[in-house]
Amino acid sequence: MHNQRITSDTVIEMDQVLPSTMPNRCKIELLLQTSLNETEESWTTTSRQYIEQLDSPELSLEKIAELLKCKRFITQRLARIFFAYTNHDEVIENLNKCQIGKLMHVLNGTMEVRALVLFKAICNNNNHADYLTNAKLQEFFQQYFKDLKILDENRRHEAVQILLEKFHLDQKSRIDFEEYYSVVSNNPVFLKCLPQFTVNSSQIVNPRSNQSSEGTRKCRYNRLVLLARICGLLLNFNCSFIIALMLRQTIVFIRSHRLLRKLIPVDDHIDFHRVVGRFIAILSTLHTIAHIANFANTKEYSLATHIFTTTTNSGWIGGFAPLSGVVLLLILLAMVICSLKWIRSSGHFQIFYWSHLLYLPFYVFLILHARDFWKWIVGPLSIFLLEKLYSIYTRYTRGKGRTHIDSVTIDQSKAISLTIHRPKNFTFKPGDYISINLSRVAFYEFHPFTISSAPEETDFIRVHIADNGDWTKKVHQHFKGMSDEEAREHQIEIYRGNIDSQETYPNGPYSEYYRMHDTDNERTGKRESVIIKGPYSSCARYVFDSKHVVLIGAGIGVTPYASILSSLMAQFRGTHFVRRNNSHVYYISDGFNENRKLQKFDFIWLNRDFENFEWFLNLLRRFEQEQDNYLALHPNEKRFLDIHLYCTDPQLASNVDNAPLELVRKICAPVARRDIYTGLKSRTNFGRPSWEKIFNKFISLENASTADDVSVFFCGRSIIGEAIKRQCEEFQFRYYEEKF
Hints:
Elements: H1 9-17, H2 24-37, H3 45-52, E1 58-60, H4 61-68, H5 72-83, E2 94-96, H6 97-107, H7 111-123, E3 132-133, H8 134-145, H9 153-166, E4 174-175, H10 177-186, H11 188-193, H12 207-244, H13 248-255, H14 258-263, H15 269-297, H16 303-308, H17 321-338, H18 341-344, H19 349-356, H20 359-369, H21 373-395, E5 402-410, E6 415-421, E7 433-437, E8 447-450, E9 460-466, H22 470-480, H23 484-489, E10 493-496, H24 511-518, E11 529-536, E12 548-554, H25 559-576, E13 579-581, E14 584-586, E15 600-607, H26 617-633, E16 641-647, H27 659-672, E17 684-686, H28 691-700, E18 710-715, H29 718-731, E19 734-737
Parallel strand pairs: 5-10, 12-15, 12-18, 15-16, 16-17, 18-19
Antiparallel strand pairs: 1-2, 3-4, 5-6, 5-11, 6-9, 7-8, 7-11, 13-14
Helix pairs in contact: 2-6, 3-6, 4-5, 8-9, 12-15, 12-21, 15-17, 17-20, 25-26, 28-29
């Protein structure tokens, strides 16, 4: 391009024309003015093309500095040097196309011109008699080093001192251009660096492509902001809606009104709660990613400053939005992980329970995070807080939630039943559940259990607890390890059931409760306290609104149906007999189901082994016997209850080893008129039931129901429920599933 030596051909030609005594400053000034006065035709092709591509007639100095890849303060100094015609202190903010072209043409000029331009830029003065001073050199490079992070303060100071020495400014206060020019022209390092003080085609940023990239960046920015805001609006709705799905007292009210429960699908509120929770997690992730990408695109602050400080003043409360977003994301992550199915179903319910209490700080931070969220949450949150206050009031009020345990029954299987003194003002429906707290087991923990006793049994509430979790194991250990002396001290009767006995409890299944409560006022001392929250409703409340009900329980999932069977037994007794005389029962009803919509009842119970059947066999025996006595006196009446028991233990499947046992069962059953395993007249089936065959019998036999009459209720493992639900859809039966 140009020789690196100052003694170029241009200087030789200039020396031939100009007097030899003329100072270098004057000669180079003439060259500079000549370059500034040249027409566009003399400009380089690159400069002309660049100027032609500019869409705007004027550009700001900041934009020019960005396009030419030059620091803004240098661009500002050059503009003032070349184009401040009246006053060198004149402030110039914009340059037109012609001025931009002249600036590029000058910077593409000879080495001599570039040396003068650099001198003027350092001096920051257009005066021909100016000098380069110690202060001006330091000021220039200190400003230049200001945005460079590759040099620390000590190295910057060291570099400036070396430059001062090179230009003899460590010994002098100032030098003129001639001395400056002499140093530059005789120093190989300066000569090597001076060509970089130019604008070449490889450095120039195409203005249209830059505008395009700027537009692309702004478009991307707008898209990110739009995505974040859309997710934010959806989060406002879903974070308030998820509370509405867990308003338990409101759900009880809806279930109590047939019209409301048809309009509002409250039976799926737990599943819907989980779906909305997952949706909140997805929206929060997208919302966070969009904001982080947006922060990364801004140049004013670093990403860490945006996220972890309040410097950017983002949000409606003191710039707290990004930082509160980080806290919200951490809380949500903890809640999502701790609510995974493998944690809830592996016996670690307390992890799920305690982590879900993080909803309290979550909503506090969410109100601080989002400007308009309070408008969405005020309704559901107000109802939720009212329900909580009501729950706290009833929980610790005698006659409502504070009570004690009367007796404990430890079955041979991994189940234990607690008979709890029923508070005076405690009312519930068959199939309802409660949350109980045993302070001597775990002071703060509440765990949900279905009530297995009937509402008509006014003196007590019974719950069955399977030994399949940390807390439930503690309950089992607490009562199994309780000594007789400790039981007497806390006035608890402890019984052990036996599957072979006709009566699990002494003097009948209910006699000991009546005996205890008849003398309750005479008993004093320290009770085994229990606190009750609830009751809370379930879909089992719809049983008495159906014509043909099929109750299917798997394992401990039978407990809500035990309450229903007990209630039916109590209602049957209260409606259909007057008194017992020795072994005779005298009925006054002409029909078993008069004035009742429920006409047929099939009870199906699946258990892996026979020990689990002991939980409610006495109840089934009594109901079976009661029905037989009634039908014997009323032969024209239909059977109301059919019992179907299935033992799914693979060791008891049909094979060579079990053939003798099956032979004994089939021979003995007709003679004994009862099943040898359970003592029921209904036979025990082995293996998994064929739902298709069972359901087909409901609608194909004589006096069978229509598909519209049948309602199937299930409580147990979800994998079994899915198979039953598929068959219900094929047979067009209504399907309800208990979910906790």
